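Hey, can you fold this?
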Amino acid sequence: MGTCPYLSEALFDDAGELIKVQKVECIETECQLWDSIGNKCSTQGGPTNSVTPSTLLMMEFQGNQDIDNNGKIYGKDFKITDSSEKPSTLQSIENSPYWEEPYVSIPWSEYLDWFENPIDVSNPLSSTTGH
């Protein structure tokens, strides 16, 4: 299947030098990025048929920019509250050496309600200031 570009992790020493890369094999059945219609990882380029909300949040964190248009950046301005409904992809991101704990936390269900119905549901982050 190949190496997952998001769950694999680079390990660095105290001086910031790369020690090794722990590769994680792609697990299609558990992947939040798997394009089942195209039968490929959506990170491999080309159009994807669906981008999950957790994928967008991952992309926000990696690119340090607001992609979902809620005015906040995941991993900088807010995080998803730990719970059984939180996607494993987002939990994996929090193990990144670049993760800094945001001050604002919202439940996955609130984020998902807004993401799926941005016209009818108010943005759960609109009243937060982040840092």
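Oh, and this one too while you're at it.
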Amino acid sequence: MKMPIVPLIFWLIVLIIVTVFFGATSHAEGFDRKYWSAAGNAVATIGADFGSTVALVGHGSCPVEAYSPWMYGRRAEPARVGAVMALEASVALGVGYWAKKHNKRLWWAPMAYMTAVHSRGLANNLQHCR
């Protein structure tokens, strides 16, 4: 059974919007809920994409990485995929944190971008590699 991409991406976008714009911020306690909610969404999506890439790509109906073979390699080795995605998550969260602390309006953009890119990768893996 192939998973439809449009509903998955729609609900991920809804989740990002609700998290970023309606999350409560508590500076008095030292815990920024908006930032950590956006970061949690990004990390969860990257983790799901990592799991699906390692589990599905290079086996059965998906013998090679077709979406980004230059980044993960044609066989998608777990160590390489993990290193690339960990670096992406670190950069997105670091840039978002820096922007949030310097009161930039688009502090959430790096995390939203990573969420969108990896939700697309997850949807691609689930749709084509089963």
